[in-house]
Batch of 4 targets.
Target 1
Amino acid sequence: VQLQASGGGLVQAGASLRLSCAASGRTGSTYVMGWFRQAPGKEHVFVAAIRWNGNRISYGDTAKGRFTVSIDNAKNTMYLQMNSLKPEDTAIYYCAASTTTWGIPITHGGYNYWGQGTLVTVSS
């Protein structure tokens, strides 16, 4: 499974961005797609995840109320709509895929495949 994240950039506080993650290869072996972020010098933090059938979604604390995760099965693409961005949202955002057949993993170890990341920088 290959994952390609895109959509990052430099924005001002309060702005919005939409990240995309295009999946290819043996996507049928995966059941959950997720977003993590990593700020400089810090560990990966869970942002959001969604099952391919869209029937279950989970958000990390930093994403609740401002970010929305969605998925387009026809395009094999997951999205992360980020609104009201803050400087503390600055990080590299990674998309990941999990073969977990039940629930939504929220830890780094719960995902089997990772994309290369896209940088989001929010200026104050």
Target 2
Amino acid sequence: QVQLVETGGGSVQVGGSLRLSCQASGYIDAVYCMGWFRQVPGKEREGLGSRYKDDTPIYAESVKGRFTISHDKANNTFYLQMNNLKPEDSGMYYCAADHGGLYDCGPEFRVRYWGQGTLVYVHS
């Protein structure tokens, strides 16, 4: 089992930045794919980006150039740096992980482990 705990959500003005953290614990050695998802009320959960092992992350078009996924191996923590935030970026953000291989690790990958979510609100 793998446990994921997100922190870092909050309220921010349009154009601002936030960094979300995802602390991973448990059997994380077998987690090869991790990423971030966002859910807005009334819409399906959207994959924002994913990374297979130490490969370069892949991003959804909606966040490419603004969001960055990174990983602090020493602390088993994943990050989502969000810059130039827009009102449509508001929503619940989830850290996610799976044991899948490279070709199963796109932004909309099938997730085995979810965090509890952290709320982001972008206002004018």
Target 3
Amino acid sequence: QVQIVESGGGLVQPGGSRKLSCAASGFTLDVYSMGWFRQAPGKEREGVSCMGHADVSPHYADSVKGRFTMSRDSAKNTVYLEMNSLKPEDTAVYYCAAERASFCGLTPWTYDYWGQGTQVAVSS
């Protein structure tokens, strides 16, 4: 049974940092690509970062490039999203998702499995 569980969300001050975790079970990251997405109230879900199992390095949306870092621990079947220099506009529910593909993309409709999301709020 496929399961994706995000954790690590919470309230952060502007300029602060937060690290999200995404634990996957029921499948292996060796044949799946993983993505991080977010959805703010009243807005569409948008891609933040992704990493294909065949990718050399992660891909990032322009809005987070240089501030967010995605990583993968295959031994733990877990991916992470380290977020630095957070801004109020980063406030959203963050989702982790998986698709059976060698290379990833930042479009949510290609992903097969989703976690329940974790809320990140950036506010003073």
Target 4
Amino acid sequence: QVQLVESGGASVQANGSLSLSCIASGKTNSRRCMAWFRQVPGKKREGVARIDIGDGSVEYADSVKGRFTISHDNAKNTLSLQMNSLNTEDTRMYYCAAQMGRCVGLEYYRFPYWGKGTQVTVSS
């Protein structure tokens, strides 16, 4: 079992920056894949970025490439998402997610562990 707690969501102006964090606890000594997803109420949860804790490989959704950076601090068991050049389309609830083992994709159904989310609102 892995427990995840996100923080860092806020309201920002367009073109601004924000950093999200997710602290993991529980079974954190095993190889796992960690990711950020986002969602608008009533729509499917969208994969934003993922990182393989074992080999460090990353993957981004096309909509955030070049603007968002995912990283992981192994010593602190903390996943981060640095978001730059934010626009109104980035307004979503952001979720941290984890799956045990290596990363195989960024589809929401692959991830059994989820945080409760943190809200990001971008205003023009």
